Amino acid sequence: MTIDLLPGERVDDLQRKGYRIIQNSQGFCFGMDAVLLSGFARIERGADCLDLGCGNGILPLLLEAKTDGRHFTGLEIQPYSVDLARRSVALNHLEDRIDIVEGDIKDASGIFGASSFDAVTANPPYMTDSHGIRNQDDAKTIARHEVLCSLEDVLRESAKVLKPGGRFFMVHRPFRLAEIISLMVRYRLEPKRMRLVYPYADREPNMVLIEGISGARPRMTVERPLVVYKAPGEYTDEIYEIYGN
C-alpha cells in the first residue's frame, strides 16, 4: 500500500510481524520508554485496550503485534500525531484492529464511556516544571511536560474507562513514584506490579514500569531490575529481546 509522506517523515521497521511506522524526526518519534511499556504490559486474549496519548501510534501497533488483544484504540490530542498514527495503521492494513481517536485525555471517559476497556496503557508527560518553556503548543513540550494533562488526569480517566478488574500499565519516572502510587490508590487502581529500569547496573533507575488493577486488593510485587546497557552502546540481551532483535 502506498502512503504519502510529508517533508521530514520516514518509514521505520518495527521488527514485529513486518509492521512499519511513519515518524518525523522533528519530534514525532517514539522512544525506548514506549517499547519497554509494550514489553511490560500483559494484555489478555480478547481484551479491548486503550492507549492514552498515543502519539504516532507506537503502542497500539506494538501491542497488536505482541499480544492476543482483540482491539486497540489510541487517543491523541495533537492533530498531526493523529494523522501520523492513522497513516501508520493504514500502512499496516490494521484498520479493523486499531482505531485512532482525536481527543483530550481529560475527557476520555466522556468520549468512550465508563467501563469500556479491559486494559489501559499510558506513557504520559513526565515533567511538572514548565519554567523556561517558550512555546506550550510545541509537540516536544506537550510530550514531555504536563501542559495539556496531568498525572492525576491520566489516572482519574483510566479508572473511569476501565472495567472492574481491568488492568492499567504505565511508564513514568522514579522521582514521582510516591505521587504515582498515592494517586493510583486514590482512584482504586491498586498497584500490583512494578519494575525499575536502570541505564546501567551501577546507576540509579531512570524509569519505572507499573501495573494497577481496578478495584483489586492491596499487594504489590516488585520485579527484578531491568538493565538497559551492559556496556556503552551495547544493550543487554533482555532489551534486544523486548525490541525483537
Descriptive account of the structure:
With 245 residues, this protein is of the alpha/beta class. It contains eight helices and 13 strands. The chain has helices at 32-40, 58-66, 79-91, 108-112, 139-144, 151-161, 177-186, 237-243, and strands spanning 9-13, 20-24, 48-52, 71-76, 98-102, 117-122, 162-172, 189-198, 207-214, 221-222, 226-227, 229-231, 234-235. Strands 3, 4, 5, 6, 7, 8, 9, 10 and 11 form a nine-stranded mixed beta sheet that branches. Helix 1 (32-40) packs parallel to helix 2 (58-66). The longest helix has 13 residues, at 79-91. It is globular and about 50 Å long. The two termini are 25 Å apart. 36% of the residues are buried. The mean pLDDT is 92.
Short description:
This protein is α/β, with parallel strands linked by helices. It contains eight helices and 13 strands.
Radius of gyration, taken over Cα atoms and rounded to an integer in Å: 17 Å
Q: State the helicity in percent bands.
A: 25-40%
Gross geometry: globular
Largest sheet: 9 strands, mixed
Mean pLDDT equals 92
* Terminus-to-terminus distance: 25 Å
What is the helix/strand order? EEHEHEHEHEHHEHEEEEEEH
**Count of separate DSSP helical elements:** 8
| SSE class | alpha/beta
Number-wise, the strands total 13
> Strand content of the residues, in percent?
25-35%
Low-pLDDT stretches are none
